[in-house]
Amino acid sequence: MKADFSLNCLPSVAKWQQLANWPVSRVPAFQATAQDKFLNARSADAWLIAFAAHHPGYVIVTNEQSAPESRKAIKLPDAAAAVGVVTMSSFDVLSRHAFGDFLFKT
Questions:
Q1: What does the pLDDT look like over 43-62, one tens digit per residue?
Q2: Does the bond joining 28 to the residue before it have cis omega, within 30 degrees of 0?
Q3: Under the phi-then-psi rule, with left for phi > 0, alpha for psi from -120 to 50, and beta for the rest, what region is 62?
Q4: What span, in angstroms and rounded, lies between the C-alpha atoms of 34 and 8?
Q5: Which residue, 32, 42, 41, 13, is CA-closest to 74?
């Protein structure tokens, strides 16, 4: 039997729609190419953020840096913040949970 590693994203569609309105209504607006790239249905970032927004308390781990003044690219941390999703870097995760031995501790 083939394992299914995908998660059901349908409950997150409302959050994706909310997120889709953000780059269009932001002032100054993002360039059209940035909006198209971010909102491409096959792009993972918007779906990942929508999924996390639908599940309060989820945190996204990313090494992408915030660039709130950018108009050429929509950065994951900025889009996540727009819908109330917390992001943190891999370094921050390791600093908080892997005390010298890289064994993850809660």
A1: 889 999 999 999 999 999 99
A2: yes
A3: beta
A4: 26
A5: 32
pTM metric for this prediction: 0.83
Q: Residue 87's pLDDT band (boundaries 50, 70, 90)?
A: very high
Amino acid identity, position 85: V
Half-sphere exposure of 54 (CA within 13 A, CB side): 19
DSSP labels, 36-51: HHHT-TT-HHHHHHHH
Which of 6, 19, 11 shows the shortest CA–CA distance to 46? Answer: 19
In a 3-state reduction of DSSP, which class is residue 22? Answer: helix
Nearest to 62 by CA among 19, 83, 20, 92: 92
Say how far apart CA 75 and CA 26 lie, in whole Å.
14
pLDDT mean over 54-77: 95
